């Protein structure tokens, strides 16, 4: 895969002409890699990326609803914070399973159905949560919702990567992933209005209806990935029609190849992630996802609860998590731009260091006396942490070629979910025993560990403008 900076108009035109020339090579044989990676970024491609981004917005929205609801549920049901640790864990276990199986499903049956199926599952399950009569039912339904929430993320990022020309891919993948904190930010603002008026049940009804509406739009308008279609000879006529809609006219009986990626592909399946010199990078990326998701979900699940425990109102606690997510949106986009220009190594390492430092600098800040400063600091922490988390998906898209890309991304996220699951119990225990100080120490330590893991990765996205095969 290629990761290059946007070019001047003349250079871009030359690349697009070369890509279109690749369509006609060897008679009726089309190099799908050249046609997509070096070709124009057409309206249809942008629309497909937009639809996958919307799937991640509702994914982030539903994924964080439980964090906003827990303080209200604690009062209504008369239970302690620790009683909700299994509920949070159940959702995160579901996300881990969903991430792993969605990647395999997407590589076998297509990215389109993986995205649609994931959104449908978490939409239905989130609606059903509104009917939960007790903690046990809430945990079971949260597990089912987690299957879809976990599956949507790797499937959507793979779809985005495979619809986007190489020179825009890092930014496009990151912009898709940044929709997770964007959805969380919208959920915080929404919860601040809905919880007082309609309670937690109304919050989950709304959270379930939104993805179900999106499912209808996805069924009507989302095309299958052209790179996936190129690997299914029986679907080549469908691919030829799709390319025509993407300003790449090909004969109806054209055959397809992917020269660049086939050079890098000697094995397929899970074991390929640890062959051809990828073992060290795969292990380091998995560990980085583990620690980063520990930090991220400690905030998503427990930040409002920690702040209410420090004496803030439910509304202020919700706004603090919204600030965390807003910082994440800004940080992820800024980091993606930096990676496009400088490569991924130093931007990621600097953001890891910023994530650790910003958490530790908040130690000793009194939540009630310096609420504004605390919320600002949490926004800054969210900026650094989500910058790392979001752009690691682009790193996966670079490290793994097409045949294993969805599996590689999904496996890294699935392993990372164990860190998220750990956060369900660690967050509750740390806040209960040590309060805000212990909580912030944990967040900083997690990001320091991510820094060490990403420093070990060999195949970082390069800063040069020369082509590179994943």
UniProtKB/TrEMBL annotation:
Cell compartment(s), UniProt: Membrane
Domain of life: Bacteria
GO molecular function, one term: carboxylic acid transmembrane transporter activity
InterPro entries reported for this sequence: MFS, MFS_dom, MFS_trans_sf, Sugar_transporter_CS
A Pfam family hit: MFS_1
Keyword set, alphabetical order: Membrane, Transmembrane, Transmembrane helix
Every Major facilitator superfamily (MFS) profile domain range: 48-461
Membrane topology: Multi-pass membrane protein
GO cellular component, one term: plasma membrane
Transmembrane segments: 47-71, 83-106, 113-133, 139-159, 171-191, 203-222, 283-304, 316-339, 346-363, 375-400, 412-432, 438-457
Keyword flag Transmembrane: yes
Protein name: MFS transporter
Highest classification ranks of the organism: Bacteria, Pseudomonadati, Pseudomonadota, Betaproteobacteria, Burkholderiales
